[in-house]
Amino acid sequence: MSGGSRRTARSRGRPSPGEADAGESARGPRRPVEGIRNGRSRDHGPIRLRDVSLKTLLGLGFLASLFVFFLVNNYQWVSRREDPVVRSLRRAVTPLPAPRMMDLPLFQGEHQESLYWGTYRPHVYLGIRARTPRSLIAGLMWIGIKDGQYFLRHICQDSDDLSTYGWRDHNGRDYGRQEIVDHGLSFMTSFLKEKRDGSGYGGDWAVRLDLQNIKSKVHDAEDSTAHLFFYVADEEGNSLGVQRQKFESHDSTLLAFGERNDVGGWELHLDSQEKLDTHFSGFRTLHMHNLSELVQGTLAFHARRTGQLQLPDAIEDSSNIIVVQISATVPAKIDIAFVSGTNVEGSSIDERINSLTGTMLSTRLEEKQGEVEDKYVSIFNIKDEVDSESMIVGRAAIGNLLGGIGYFYGQSRIALPKGFTQENGDKFISYWPAALFTAVPSRSFFPRGFLWDEGFHQMIIGRWDAKLSMDIIGHWLDLINIDGWIPREQILGAEALSKVPEEFVLQYPTNGNPPTLFLVLRDLLNGIRTGKLLSQETNEITDFLSRAYIRLNAWFQWFNTTQSGKDVGTFYWHGRDNTTTKELNPKVAAISVFYWYASISIFTSSSTFVFSYCSFPFLLPSLSLSLWSRCHNVLDFVLFMTQNHTMPSLDALLTLTSGLDDYPRASHPNDEERHLDIRCWMLLAADCMHSIAELLKMENASAKEYHQMSKQLSDFEKLNQMHLDDASGAYFDFGYHTEKVRLRWHEVKVLDTVQRELVRETLEEPQLKLVPHLGYVSLFPFMMGIIPSESPILEKQLRLISNRSTLWTDYGVRSLSKTSIYISLVNVLDAAATVLNIVVFVLEAGPYRTMAGTLYQELRSNLIRNIVGNYYETGFLWEQYDQKNKGKGKGARPFTGWTALVLLMMTEAYPSLQRKKEDLSNPLLIATSTASSSTMRLLEEIFLILLALAAAVSAALLQNGNFESPPSNIKPNSSTPLLPLSKNNTIPGWSFNGTVYYVTAGPDISLPDNGHAIQLGLNGVIRQTIRLTSIYSQYILTFSITSVNGSCKTPAAALNVSFVDRWFYKSSVFLVEGKYGRKSWESHACSLGRMAGEGDPVVLELRSQSAEADHNVACGPVVDTAILKRFDPLGGYAGEFVNGGFEDGPIFIKNSSEGILLEPTEDLTNTPLFEWAVFGAVKYVDSKHYLVPEGNAAVEIVSTIGAIRTILLLKEGSSYRLEFVMGVPIDSCTGELILGVQAGPTSQNFTLPSNGTGYRKKFSLGFRAETNLTSIGFMNVQGGETSDHVICGPLVDNVSISASLRPQVGLQQLLLLPSLLLLAAVLKIDEEFLRNFPFSDLVI
User: Fold this and answer.
1) Which residues are known catalytic residues?
2) Whole-angstrom Cα distance, residue 964 to residue 494?
3) Mean pLDDT of 1059-1065
4) Cis peptide bond upstream of 1003, omega within 30
5) Which whole number is the average pLDDT over 658-669?
6) Which long-range contacts link 528-535 to residues 24+ away (Cβ below 8 Å)?
7) Which is more confident, 216 or 464?
8) 275-306: pLDDT as tens digits
9) Which of 591, 593, 574, 570 shows the shortest CA–CA distance to 582?
10) Which GO CC annotations does the UniProt entry carry (predicted)?
11) Which of 706-720, 752-766, 810-824 has the lowest mean pLDDT?
12) Which of 382, 386, 945, 1276 has its CB 3.0 to 4.6 Å from that of 1289, i.e. a possible disulfide?
């Protein structure tokens, strides 16, 4: 519930006359109270007492005492009998009995009023409201045009596909400037707030809309008229008025007006020098989260009646929502001014409107912009080496963070225990109604408060505006309940609820989040210690911490009691399911099978995927049909999945409490677990609480306990005993664990249906030991500065970070090492776990200063370069950056949560986790003057924001796969072309049998790298044993083969490749045919299958297949550069190509320019071309040597019997359009290339002539899905040839599918068409309307 029935203190104190009258009316007219007795005078006489005896009074008193005694004892007895679960729930929704943070004087008066109005609705592109539970709200909608169709924009959502949007500058209080680019339309939205004489409470505000048209080939033909919708709505339900007039003059025009208890009378004015067309509508509803639907429905209804894309100029009775449509020819500049206090005489309305529009507004906006830029430079002091482009990105990072601050009011929903349900069917109880003022991580995906994220947000906001930051932290601390718990995710009010899938709404009182707010509190303490603050700021922070101490203490004790381990001083994140059989690692996303992933993806993306399509079929039936067809596909697929498969709880898949949602923990949870990260968080919190107690000069028992606990948790020897792996120097969690677990499909009969379930199988008894998964958790002691600077463990930690085979990449640091068996799973269902938002460590001067300095500079440079580059390429800051795809952004966008911390990297202004030194004479001071001393730290604080880079595909390289490591006894620089291997000169990494030669390139033998290779003679075989590093992964082998000469009796050199483990065996034979390339070397790729057991030995074997009659050494196959690659299948949505761009395939071999011949296979789950079956000769080609239309790779179907095929899950009976790019693979390929395409029952040939200059073209094919499983295939009908007689064939790339926008025309449509044309004539639909709406879809 949004808490909409509550009134503010301000409204209760100042009821309006109308409200009083309404109250009387509701109760009926006052009537004189009649006397008890007829004829009795209304005058009151003296008070009369009855004549009662003393005995009677004593008797009555005794009985009353007995009654009270009985009530009291009965209440206590009932209380003692109260169910523990009920008592726990009652406590969960009971506020902490302590003074509220927001009642502090520093948050009252001028401060409170100065923050009353703001851009506090982050989930919409432009939204304004007041900091009051039931506010007057305002916002902007507009119609965007894409591919000739209209789309209404309002709520920030990724499906809108905007080129960019976000606050480029914002000061968090009274000014902001936002850029929005929607295909051909670009505009700036500027916000300004001012308090002038005559203004009502909170002042006045203005919005400027500066529209520009982006000219391009795509948009030249599109309409240059922009349709904007500015609305104002009263959440209290107060009636609003609208000025029924046309905007004809250039003077300001009154759009709407009303009156409220908080701001008095108010007016909304429009001002522009452009010619505008305005229309309006009024609605009566309290459901503000449905505003988009209201406008959509009204536009659709009016468009069907009149053929005009405009509001109907009508209002409902007592409308509390007014929407004004403003149509303008682009470019245009439009000002909208809101003035309050208009019901007071002498309020200077005209003067205030003039100051908020036109030239005066331009001047004020320029002044505010200059102030923001000056403050940015002054506070952050960007380093000289940071270029101007990076500075702009830094300003956008803090601007979007400040512009994303929102005000929410409502009640969190607290989950009932399993088996409990309220009488009305609800499985939750409500928290008390509360307000929250908070920043949000992402305006599109996460437009609400997250406790874990807020600590990182405030590390920037606190530097920009400390008082604003304390205001936000104060709101969070006021949400603490009597047990010290804060709900980790705040979903308050109907608007916030509308953006969250139902399964993520409920909050669990046993689940917390890392106490990141202590990071900011430490910054505030350091500000006081270093004496950098003014006395007023010091006093305000001290007052704040004094009031906050009792709440912080309750919060700390909640962690200390509910998350503690079995042993003293140990902690673990409670709540993991120790009974589950559905997950490899309980509370870790372990599903990588296509159907599971697809169903989870649809459910978790419901608000932005299913609902974004299903809620938008408006205006015309043809548009509705196209969108609804997609909608039904998804809904039918979800229905299919839920009927045929058992899906585990989404919340059970993630360890949301730790903030590292899917980081792998011990395989078998129990109370003997010890989690390293929470131990370090508790150290930070304990040390911070001790510092606050000292600042406040507290000498109570709790202050001493915090000091003692801080010393205990910082005990380096104790930490090493519990969590250190001596051999690697890495720190790990501890618990019952085994790596020998796997998931297998099991069929389970439920009633009359058979369902498939993934059930965990444990192949080895778990043991109490360190959990060997290297990643962010392993680095927590390093981040928190616990490791002494002279310890050799510090050197090992630095080497772990810098090791490319584990954590280091060119774009950041992985959240989990490549060697972990869970690396793919961590990156599959990733809510936030692949990003550890902050790493802070302190290095004292010591032996590792040079290594640390080099590492720091390189990592800082990599991160800044990658984030800034992505921003300019895509227009957004991203939640994650993908190592697999050259560091490109992925996940939520725009994401200015922890990604905004790149600003602190640019400035090198890092928050401190330095704990106080015991020998300081003044415990409130830190000696910073010794920083230059040779005994002090080289880098005072190195703040590494490690943006984890998902590695869904990782290369598991074979040892000595290129055979460049020579046999053990070969002489250096030996030029012997063929060296036979024996037991005395084995080749590193490989074992062998039969006749095997070590080949060295020379005048008579040519090798791809002019290096070394292996030739297999008669019965020759080489083997290598590897261990699987993942579960259900697919392994693909790429290798090069040739024969030395062609004088052999067999037609070509033959190689047998086999792959075997305990459960699986596969064998394939490859021939060197020499007709698909100019060179004698051929590169091949084969899938070695999907392995289910991790850690098990697997043998790769390469064997000569030459006939026994061939005793000639030169007839054996020569093998070079064998590379083994691992795929972790991610799957995709229903009706979507998983690998339509062919980017997921084998690894290209260095110095190979002929492409890779793919092993023919009909098995979609065991193919070298991910998700595609291969027939005949098909090449996998790269963009370096071939004319690939887009990306890094494509497919060339070489032979005339060659083909590729995949299967999609579509909606039976629905129409679709298959799109693809057909091209000529290389310039020298000539002839008429013909590609046969089949989609379900429909097939067609496509021709592309080639004259040897290279050519590509996009084609499409419409078809109807006759079954849910639909085959899509491409076949070489006719190929070409190069001038040197090398066979070439059509190249295929960028395969995609969409619901057809052209419905299949049957008899009903044929009869409907004349009716529509007649209707158009009657309604006189103008040409522009017909051109822009997709009526053409109905034309035959």
Assistant:
1) 661, 879
2) 65
3) 66
4) no
5) 81
6) 528/695, 528/924, 529/924, 529/925, 529/926, 530/925, 530/926, 530/928
7) 464
8) 899 999 999 998 888 899 899 899 988 888 88
9) 591
10) endoplasmic reticulum membrane
11) 810-824
12) 1276
**Residue 634 bridge partners (DSSP):** none
Note the pLDDT of residue 84. 79
Question: Which of the two residues, 1305 and 897, has the higher pLDDT score?
Answer: 897
Mean pLDDT, rounded, of the chain:
76
Q: Which long-range contacts (CB under 8 A, 24 or more apart) does 1322-1331 make?
A: 1323/305, 1323/306, 1323/307, 1324/307, 1325/307, 1326/307, 1326/308, 1328/223, 1329/303, 1329/307, 1329/308, 1329/309
Gyration radius of the chain's alpha carbons:
36
CA distances from 246 to 249, 681, 814 (A): 9, 61, 59
Task: Assign residue 785 a region (left: φ > 0; alpha: ψ between -120 and 50; beta: otherwise).
Answer: left
677 vs 107: CA distance, rounded Å: 34
Summarize the confidence of residues 995-1022 as an average pLDDT.
81
The distance from CA 118 to its chain's CA centroid, rounded to whole angstroms, is: 26
Q: Which residues pair with 757 in a beta bridge?
A: 746
**pLDDT, mean of residues 409-435:** 90
Between CA 838 and CA 944 the distance in angstroms is: 6
Share of the chain above pLDDT 70, in %: 73
Query: Which pairing describes strands 1269-1278 and 1203-1209: parallel, antiparallel, or unpaired?
Result: antiparallel
Strands (E), 645-774: 724-725, 730-731, 734-737, 741-750, 753-762, 767-770
Q: Which of 629-633, 650-654, 1125-1129 has the highest mean pLDDT?
A: 1125-1129
Could you give the CA distance from residue 885 to residue 873 in angstroms, rounded to a whole number? 14
* Other CB atoms within 10 A of residue 873 CB: 10
pLDDT exceeds 90 at position 480: yes
Average pLDDT over residues 176-196: 94
Our CA dihedral for 1097, 797, 870, 127, rounded to 10 degrees, sits at 110
The phi, psi pair for 671, rounded to 5°, reads -80, 0
1009 token code pair: 């790298």
Q: What letter represents residue 1322's amino acid? A: V
- Mean pLDDT score, 1086-1112: 68
DSSP string, 980-1041: E--TTSPPTT-EEESSEEEEE--SS---TTSSEEEEE-TT-EEEEEEE--SSSEEEEEEEEE
Locate 104 and state its tokens. Answer: 């502090």
3-class secondary structure, 222: coil
Residue 765 has pLDDT above 80, yes or no: yes
Task: Give me the pLDDT at residue 1129, please.
Answer: 52
Q: What's the confidence (pLDDT) of residue 82? A: 52
Paired tokens of 263? 């701001």
Helix ranges restricted to H, 714-827: 716-723, 780-783, 792-802, 823-826
Which stretch of 231-235, 317-321, 869-873, 1051-1055 has the lowest confidence by average pLDDT? 1051-1055
Cβ neighbours for 210, distance < 8 A, ≥ 6 positions apart: 187, 188, 190, 331, 333
C-alpha span between 1144 and 1085 (Å, rounded): 13
Tell me which amino acid residue 56 is.
T
Task: Check if the beta carbon of residue 311 is closer than 8 Å to that of residue 281.
Answer: yes
